[in-house]
Specification:
Layout (H helix, E strand, L loop, with lengths): L7 H6 L4 H15 L7 H14 L5 H12 L4 H15 L1 H11 L1
Helix pairs in contact: 3-4, 3-5, 5-6
Length: 102
């Protein structure tokens, strides 16, 4: 597995919120996303479901949908995941997620 390196925190917030940037880049993406106890495809699915369940359908969901695709989650799997999650997280949240996913 290629090591995941993230710089978005430092790039966007480094001068304003150095600690947050560090936790985002080095801990969340550096340590958590590089942990091999869960494969990347499963980790991507968990992340998409978590974001949709919270109603977060902004650029972060768009990023994680693309990341899921890049890590082997197919179009039909995304559709099935969002449909399944709609029954638990809410129909409007699923609609919003589908608008980004398609």
């Amino acid at each position: 597995m290629e090591k995941i390196v993230q710089t978005a925190g430092r790039d966007q917030l480094g001068n304003f919120a150095k600690d947050f940037a560090h936790f985002n880049d080095d801990v969340l993406f550096g340590e958590n996303w590089n942990n091999t106890d869960i494969n990347l495809k499963t980790r991507c699915i968990i992340t998409v479901v978590s974001l949709v369940s919270q109603g977060i359908v902004d650029s972060s969901l768009k990023y994680h949908l693309q990341n899921a695709k890049n890590n082997g989650v197919t179009k039909s799997e995304i559709a099935a995941i969002l449909t399944h999650n709609a029954f638990y997280a809410g129909w409007p949240k699923a609609w919003a997620a589908f608008n980004l996913a398609k």
